[in-house]
Write a structure and sequence with these properties.
The complex is a heterodimer. In chain A, strands 2-10-9-4-5-6 form a 6-stranded mixed sheet, with no helix packed on it. A 4-stranded antiparallel sheet of chain A has the order 1-3-8-7, with no helix packed on it. Helices cover about 0% and strands about 50% of the residues of chain A. Chain A contains no helices and 10 strands. In chain A, a hairpin with an 8-residue loop joins strand 9 and strand 10 (about 105-110). Chain B is mainly beta. Chain B is built from no helices and 11 strands. Chain B is globular. In chain B, a hairpin with a 3-residue loop joins strand 5 and strand 6 (about 60). The chains are: A mainly beta, B mainly beta.
């Protein structure tokens, strides 16, 4: 059974960075792209970017270049996303996904 | 970027009734390989999105045949027959033909 288990909620100050994780199980981690999706409160979904764990290759939505950094740790089958220079606009739920499977989401709140 | 326009924004349906949701794309979603990467998701309250239909008309594993997808090119439709309480939530279409992948604005299905 495929699972994508995401790290817990984070409260961070404006201007800071946050790094969240997505631990995969139930499939061969290195064989599938992992995407990250943003959902602002009560709004639709935005694709941030994706990473191919086998090679580390990435593909970004231009809107999030410079905002998001994607990495993986193959030894633990974990994908990471770091968001930098946070503002209130970055407050949202962030999902990792293979599009057929989704993590439970990580809530990021940016507040002083 | 490809814009996906979903209509209606909200739907009031009686239990046992039928719902129809439209997703129109700003450009053709036929990939150069001949496939059409238009998918449908349901996000139940407080949950992550779940895949219902992939590539226009293919039901994902475990999805009942009450859900059906159709369409081609730029116009796509999701139909839900014999609506049940578990079908309530927000429905999204997603295109993965053109980078960046984009979602529709969502259609909220509520009980009349």
């Amino acid at each position: 059974q495929v699972k994508l288990l995401q790290s817990g909620a984070a409260l961070v100050k404006p201007g800071a960075s946050v790094k969240m994780s997505c631990k995969a199980s139930g499939y061969t981690f290195t064989d599938y792209w992992v995407s990250w999706v943003k959902q602002s409160h009560g709004k639709s979904l935005e694709w941030i970017g994706e990473i191919y764990p086998n090679s580390g290759a990435t593909n970004f939505n231009e809107k999030f270049k410079g905002k998001a950094t994607l990495t993986v740790d193959k030894s633990t089958s974990t994908a990471y996303m770091e968001l930098s220079r946070l503002t209130s606009e970055d407050s949202a739920i962030y999902y990792c996904t293979r599009f057929r499977d989704w993590g439970q989401g990580t809530l990021v709140t940016v507040s002083s | 970027d490809v814009v996906l326009t979903q209509t209606p924004v909200s739907l009031l349906i009686s239990l046992g009734g039928q719902a129809s949701i439209s997703c129109r794309s700003s450009q053709s979603l036929v990939h150069s390989n001949g496939n059409t990467y238009l998918h449908w998701y349901l996000q139940k309250p407080g949950q992550s999105p779940q895949l219902l239909i992939y590539q226009v008309s293919n039901r994902f594993s475990g999805i009942p045949d009450r859900f059906s997808g159709s369409g081609s090119g730029t116009d796509f439709t999701l139909k839900i027959s014999r609506v049940e309480p578990e079908d309530l939530g927000v429905y999204y279409c997603l295109q993965r033909t053109h980078n960046p992948w984009t979602f529709g604005g969502g259609t909220k299905l509520e009980l009349k």
